[in-house]
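re: ur question from yesterday

yeah so i grabbed the chain u mentioned. its 189 aa long if i counted rite. heres the sequnce exactly as i have it in my notes:
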Amino acid sequence: MAVLIKAEQSDMDPLTIGLAIAGAKKMLEISTDLKDISGSLEHLFHASEAKPKKVKKKLPKTRMQQLLRMKAGDADYDDDTSISAVANDVLEAKRNERALSNLAIEIDNKFGRGTFEAIKVERVKRIEAKKVQTKKNKEKARIKQEEDDKYWANVIAILKNVGILILVSIVCVIVGWIISMNACKEAVC
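ran it thru and got these structure tokens back, copy pasting raw so excuse formatting
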């Protein structure tokens, strides 16, 4: 069976994927309906697409990693280019592919042929719909932001004009007061 989920080997966290596959298989054993395993499948798909966290210092996590490092003579656990690290990544990816294939077969056997493929197709459709909706939401937010910017620019312009009008009025009152104070109040100026 071909690779069911396409992701680069460096993008996969083998332990998380293995746990997600085990969880999905366990849920498959006790499920009576496809809805019962949907959460496990979502966790599995998310784990296979997620990028692993950066680890400062790598130590061998599994016995296979330890054996590969000893046989290859690699002493540095931080080197991702060593033969043991590359071999471990490839072997873990193949193991996860096989486990995922087996899970797909189990789902198809329990719920009918093509069910797992239908699940994958529907998931891709929903992801695309979510991307389109996100794009629409961003466009709406951008338009709303532009409208808000225009509104506040207009408010600022009005406040500026009112400020200028008040300032001119104050100047006129001061000039009028100065003129009235200096005006002739007696017959002879």
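noticed a couple things. The chain has a mean pLDDT of 79. also Residues 107 and 113 are 8 Å apart (CA to CA).
anyway ttyl
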